[in-house]
Write the structure tokens for this entry.
Amino acid sequence: MSQQHRVLMVATSYPQSETDWQGLFIRKIADSMGGSPLVDVSLWAPDGPRHVAVQYACSDSDAAWLKGLALRGGIAHLLRTKPVAALGVGGSLLRRLRTLYKERVDDTDIFHINWLQNALPLYGLNTKAVITVLGTDFKLLKLPGMVAMLRRVMRGNRCILAPNSAWMKQPLEHWFGDVAKVVPVNFGIEKSWYQLSCAAPSSTTHWLCVLRVTQDKIGSLFDWGEDIFGKEHQLHLVGPNQDGLEIPAWVHYHGAATASELAEKWYPMCTGFITLSEHSEGKPQVLLETMAAGMPIIASKIPAHQETISQGEHGYLVGSAIEFRAAIEQLSSASVHMKLSDNCRATSKRDYGLWDDALDRYLELYGMLT
């Protein structure tokens, strides 16, 4: 493909420093675009570190507004905790994006929009858009009238919906298949994750859980783990306690950590990864990075996990305290652990690759539209 695409990427989440992990996948995609001769990319998102070739598209007013939104936890957090306030913030977001889209429609080939709500201001502009759909978008789609509004937007534009997980394809085609094409696109993985190694089982085995600490994301972990973790097995929980949950004393809680801290300290120390999330997930990036590091996973039976983890090949999917304990015992076997570790790394290389591989997948979609 030799055609250069003028792309405007839009997101409401973006890392504000080298150590921030909010919206990190947005930076990885944008940086890959910045390094490609096939893309002339502008970015409308909270201000933060970016590739020298990525042009910043925010006005001073928009940049300040987005910074304030990030400090309040973002749209999804506001919808969960302060729904009335979120409506006002959402209205302001849509007005700002409508102004941006109208100003940029003549000098943009592809609008690359992250999250469905950010596509609403495209109404009637007769342009082309790739719209990344994540798990949190499914909560938006439950709002009254939202599907109908998005259908009107897609009728007036040429759109490809690009969920980051294949399980989303069927419901999205049910709602939008006659007005937009649905093409799942896997994200990539940073090269450094493939260079890590996790610890083999030992007399004291360390287990890692990395997430934003909310009730939905913790799921049944505190209930099922109470009789398992102690001296022989230790659970290490890493991530911001976003909802101020009470964390049991037997959990080794370490607060938020940077990607480099995870890679340098926690992954080499731990044997397996645990996520019992009940949250509406797309395909959590942390699972892809964990597999690339060769760390087997014990996960709840939600669609995002069922698509990513094959039972007995990359880890274990569990739906009860009994199954959870059995999975811990299985991965405490050195031979089982080694086999699953090798499988995880091989699958990551084959199915996800690097962020430049993800860019190639998006370039195919751009070509389909142009």
